[in-house]
Amino acid sequence: MTFLSRRVGILIAAAALLAGGALGVACSNGGGGDDTSGGDASKDSTTDTKPGSDTGPGSDTGPGNDSGPPTSCEAGVSGECDIVTQNCGAGKDCVAVQADGGGFVTQCVSNTQGSLPEGTACNPGNNNPCKAGLECIENRCAKHCCFGDDSACGKSNPEGYPGRCNLGVTLVTNGPQVYDVCSYSPGCEPFGVQPCTAGQGCYVNDSQGTSTCTTFDGVDAGEGMPCKAENDCNQSGMGCFGTNDGGFTCQWNCYVPPGPFDAGIASQGAGKGGCPTGEKCNAINWNGQLPTWLGLCGK
């Protein structure tokens, strides 16, 4: 099963990047592949090649730069510093800036005014309000990380929501993921049992059924439409899953009893545990990565 990340879209001009501002962000969350398709889109950003580059994530060569120190994990941009390990030294951020001729490279910029710690609410702007080494993404001071390494993340401040490394950052609108950061989202229960706020979906993260809220990223894809990240799909209870032809489309999740919820929700409508008219809930081999009670609607 292939995990995709969640993504969010924020685009700041290159001048703001040079000043240490926020970058374009895309986030996606984990989902599960089925027995016949290529998996789900759990990282809200895909792992395609980067803009202006012939290399994909995990490559030591970043867009617009043919040399530089290797990145610490899947970061798709390189230059004078490492955006994940943040190795610029005290009072500086390693950020991605637009290179001459297109593409992006990493560069150390001064951050002597940011003071907010990891997981604290923030407002992105031309100057990074977070401590050096952190970035204001989805209105939280986020730590950079390697996708799936939740141990690298702390907690939200002051709520104490556990951080998860599941947000893929993009540098152009609807572009591919370049690096990952931690998210700090409140918990939820799928199928509307414990819903998120308006404009968010509830996504299952692991085999224990741990679920968190994530904001839809604005792609606004409906059932059967192509997608690249889990939160491309525009309704809670829907995710981005692999198809037999190797692509990804938005599909409804459904409830397969027994599990932690009332078995009756399996007969409810799409997004509430059941499926659209004419579709059935198919149990899927999740390879132990997601709970057995989470299925997919289909013919």
Q: In angstroms, what separates the terminal alpha carbons?
A: 21 Å
Low-confidence stretches: 8-38, 42-71
What is the approximate shape?
A: elongated
Q: Helix content range of the residues, please? A: under 10%
Strand order of the largest sheet: 3-4-6-5
Number of helices: 1
Q: State the order of secondary-structure elements, H for helix, E for strand.
A: HEEEEEEEEEEEE
Task: State the secondary-structure class.
Answer: mainly beta
Overall mean confidence score, pLDDT:
77
* Global Rg: 19 Å
Features:
four-stranded antiparallel β-sheet; mainly beta; elongated; 299 residues; 22% strand
Walkthrough of the structure:
The protein has 299 residues and is an all-beta fold. 2% of the residues lie in helices and 22% in strands. The chain is built from one helix and twelve strands. The chain has one helix spanning 14-18; strands spanning 92-98, 104-110, 134-137, 140-145, 164-169, 179-183, 200-204, 211-215, 238-242, 248-255, 280-282, 294-298. The chain has a four-stranded antiparallel β-sheet, with no helix packed on it. It is elongated and about 55 Å long.
